[in-house]
Structure formats: C-alpha cells, structure tokens
Write a structure and sequence with these properties.
The protein is an alpha+beta fold. The chain is 28% helix and 25% strand. Helix 1 packs across helix 3. The longest helix has 19 residues.
C-alpha cells in the first residue's frame, strides 16, 4: 500500500480517535512532515479527516467518505475495488476496462456520476457524496447463465436483502429493476452485456447499481417519485459498509442463479402482483392486471380484454 493508504488504514482502524502525526509517523517509519503532507493530500481528495493542534488527526465515526480499505475490510471475496471521485458512468468506465480483461467481480465505484444512466438511456441523478454508484464486472463462464434476466433479478434480491438487514428498512421491487421504499424509488439496476460478434456469445456482464443513500436535494421532477434510504445526517451505517454488504450478497447469489429461492424471494418483494398496470405493445397502451411472476422472472398479466400475456422485457407503470 502507498503511504496515504497506510495512513488511512491506521486512522480508520482508530476511527473517532485522534492520533498525533508523531505516532502515525513512528508506526510507518516516516517523518511528521511526510504525515502532514499525506494528510493534506487526502483531504484534498475528499477524505473527511479532522486535524486539531496538539491532538492530531481523526476520521469521524460518522465519516461517509468512500474508502477501498474500509470496503475490503468487510468483504468475503477478493474483488478488485476501483474508486473514482467522478465518472460519467461507472458502466461506461467498466466497458473501457474490458480491454484489460479485468477479473471476475471487479467493482468500480464513483463518488458522483456526471452522466449516470438508467434503462433506455434515461438519466440517473448521481450527485456527489450522497449516493452509491457502482458497477460489477462478471465473467459468464464463472456463472450459470441460461437466462440473462436472472442476473437483474438476483441483483435486485441481493440489494433488498442488503438494505433491509443492514439499514433496517423494508424495501420492495418494481419489476424488473427498481427498488422502492414507501412508494418511492431509492435504487435502480442497469445490466449490460458485451458479446463476441462472430459467435454471438456473451463475453462480459456489467451490473450497474445506483442508490440514493442520503441524498437530500432532488430535481423538481424527481421529488414525487424519488427518495433516499437515509436522511442527510441520520444514517446508521456508512456507504462503505453498505457497498461491502451488496458485493458480498451479489457474489453469493450469482454462484447459483438457478436456485429457486431467488425467484421466490423476488416474488415476495414484488409490489406489482395483483396490481393494475399499463404497458406498451407496438406503441399501443395496454391496461392489465399482474397475475404472477414465473420461474424465469417474466411478468404474467391479464389484459382488460381478457387475454393473458407474458412480458419478458419492457417497462410497466402502475395504475394508481
């Protein structure tokens, strides 16, 4: 690890306590001046470090700064963690890495996205410091992939489990890729794949995840439909803890995508079953009622005309 990483590791292992530059320097066999220089650079990079004369340096207990060291401390797997202060899109960055053949589970995390994307190219609001914007690169040969939709379904189940258990919330899933709390969206999933042109086989899968962690200010058009897991100041866990939990849950679940418990849990978390919805068929608006979600994750609906249909993709809206 670099000097800055070692200093962060020491401060994070003593979070909430002040350590003098002299003590840190002795631990790392460097001068106090070198410690001060590294601390200054870490602060300019966005780390929340308190420095008090004659007391030393401290990372507050409520620090929400992204840290690969903090994330790895809680990981069950050896995922490569890449953290960037700002990206246009973590999925885009993930695609640019594919030429380097990144390892299975490589995770890209950004403190903000300037052009975060949702399904159908929609913009995903991604302000700095208050969200979780991450992409995980998967290798198809290491997972059983008979139905790509199961990746999104499994990710949704992993997200709800992570947020419910770690943050003490009650999340629900809107088919197929949105996570809700109290009727408002708090997270979305964008699964993309790259294929070999000649064989048509999937070479890489990138799971993009955007979460409103403690965002307090939304654009006016999002106010009726979006919220965050926590309020700006009142969060019981930090972003690093939730990121580590999400990675662990996803890596656990993708190892057995055909496990019947995945779709069972997805059904339990769905708030569409039994609801009236609207979807589009050849640009025509169709009104229907959701009957169930089948074993492949497809939506089973009955239209107002009495015909039954199976939706394997697309977008549905709830008739409120």
């Amino acid at each position: 690890m670099s000097t800055k990483e070692l200093i962060i590791s020491i401060l994070e292992n003593n979070k909430g306590q002040y350590l003098s530059g002299e003590i840190i320097g002795k631990n790392l066999n460097i001068s106090r001046a070198a410690v001060s220089k590294a601390i200054k650079e870490l602060k300019s990079s966005g780390y929340s470090i308190l420095s008090v004369n004659k007391k030393g340096h401290c990372i507050p207990l409520q620090s929400n700064t992204l840290s690969s060291i903090e994330i790895k401390k809680n990981l069950k797997y050896c995922n490569e963690i890449i953290i960037k202060n700002s990206l246009d899109s973590t999925n885009n960055y993930g695609k640019s890495l594919l030429i380097e053949n990144p390892s299975h589970g490589t995770t890209i995390i950004a403190n903000e996205q300037t052009n975060g994307r949702g399904r159908k190219g929609r913009y995903f609001f991604s302000p700095k410091d208050t969200g979780i914007y991450m992409s995980i690169i998967l290798k198809p040969e290491l997972i059983s992939l008979d139905n790509p939709l199961k990746i999104t379904i499994a990710t949704a189940v992993a997200l709800t489990k992570s947020i419910d258990e770690l943050c003490n919330k009650n999340t629900l899933i809107k088919w197929v890729n949105d996570i809700y709390i109290d009727g408002k969206k708090i997270a979305g999933i964008l699964t993309e794949a790259t294929t070999d042109f000649e064989s048509g086989t999937i070479q890489n899968i990138i799971i993009g995840i955007g979460i409103n962690f403690n965002t307090s200010i939304f654009p006016e058009e999002l106010l009726p439909i979006a919220r965050s897991i926590f309020s700006k100041e009142d969060y019981s866990v930090n972003r690093n803890e939730l990121i580590a939990r999400i990675i662990n849950e996803i890596m656990d679940i993708i190892g057995d995508l055909n496990n019947e418990n995945i779709i069972k849990k997805y059904r339990e978390k769905s708030f569409l079953i039994g609801r009236d919805i609207v979807f589009y068929e050849k640009e025509n608006e169709v009104f229907a009622k959701v009957l169930d979600i089948n074993e492949d994750g497809y939506l089973l609906v009955e239209t107002t005309s009495g015909s039954k249909k199976t939706l394997s993709a697309g977008e549905v809206n709830i008739k409120w």
